[in-house]
Write a structure and sequence with these properties.
By secondary structure, this protein is of the alpha+beta class. The protein is built from 8 helices and 12 strands. The chain has 2 domains: about 160 residues, Gcn5-related N-acetyltransferase (GNAT) (Aminopeptidase, 3-Layer(aba) Sandwich), CATH 3.40.630.30; about 80 residues, no CATH class. The protein is globular and about 55 Å long.
Length: about 280
């Protein structure tokens, strides 16, 4: 297990009702009211095999990761539903450590896979999930939570973390997933830089590459939140094109395995065909 970034941060399972109430209060500091997971829901999930992994500064809860048990018709797995981190404690490696603590708990409990969803346009989450934790993506879910307040579909990537895989084991031992050199892989979607702004170009020619190349790149803007606010129409076009291309690639046996940055403004998803 990698060393803690802060000696005073302690990691342990949360089962006490009062501490679960603290987890609810922490969510209210981080997330919108309609995304809050209640104490009762977490308590019930723990009773039926789930867990809440907490990070504490002295006796104060500063972060947690909550998962419940799912079943895909073949085997049970952990559905990691919620993570919250006090803004004052960000960028200290606590989120990474919480995921590794969740992995350790899951393995000890007999589970070999953790899954969760994230917004494909969240580049930092992508880097954590793929490069630092060693997870992969091969499923795209449209409108997972419907539409947001601005009218954008809440599309999500479905992350799969094979806990005993070489990728996950390397991550747990502090090595992370190898980034590799994906510069030679063709981009499915062109990007254009004008006056400090980045926009996506048409993808028709890129779509023809799916199935022909062993590796592909699918770009997203690193400043997606700013693009979404300043140029909502441009963001919608990019989102639609990423949806179509990712869905097509996954149907042809590709999966997202890493991230690659060729320009400061853009981060590429690296897709490789599964053997």
């Amino acid at each position: 297990m990698p060393e803690q970034h802060e000696d005073r941060i302690q990691y342990r399972l949360i089962t006490d009702i009062e501490e679960l109430v603290q987890a609810v209060h922490l969510q209210k500091k981080v997330w919108a009211p309609d995304t809050i997971t209640s104490m009762q829901q977490m308590r019930a999930a723990i009773l039926h095999g789930g867990a809440v992994n907490g990070a504490f500064s002295k006796e104060e809860l500063v972060g947690f990761c909550y998962g419940f048990i799912g079943y895909d018709g073949k085997a049970p797995y952990v559905g990691s539903h919620m993570m919250a981190l006090d803004p004052a404690y960000r960028d200290r490696g606590i989120g990474m450590r919480l995921k590794l603590e969740q992995r350790l708990w899951a393995l000890e409990a007999g589970y070999d896979k953790i899954v969760w969803t994230f917004d494909p346009f969240e580049s930092r989450n992508a880097y954590l999930n793929l490069c630092k934790l060693g997870a992969t993506v091969s499923s795209y879910i449209r409108e997972f939570y419907g539409y947001d307040a601005a009218g954008h579909p809440t599309d999500r990537f479905l992350v799969e973390w094979a806990l005993s895989s070489a990728r996950a084991t390397d991550a747990a031992e502090g090595r992370g997933a190898p980034a590799g050199d994906a510069a030679a892989y063709p981009r499915l979607l062109g990007v254009e830089f004008t006056d400090g702004k980045v926009t996506a170009l048409g993808h028709q020619s890129g779509k023809d590459l799916i199935g022909l190349a062993d590796g592909l790149r699918l770009p997203i803007p690193r400043a997606a939140a700013q693009l979404k606010q300043a140029q909502p129409d441009a963001f919608k076009v990019w989102q639609r094109q990423l949806r179509e291309l990712a869905t097509a690639a996954f149907s042809q046996g590709y999966r997202v395995v890493s991230c690659h940055r060729a320009e400061p403004e853009v981060q590429d998803y690296v897709l490789e065909r599964q053997a």
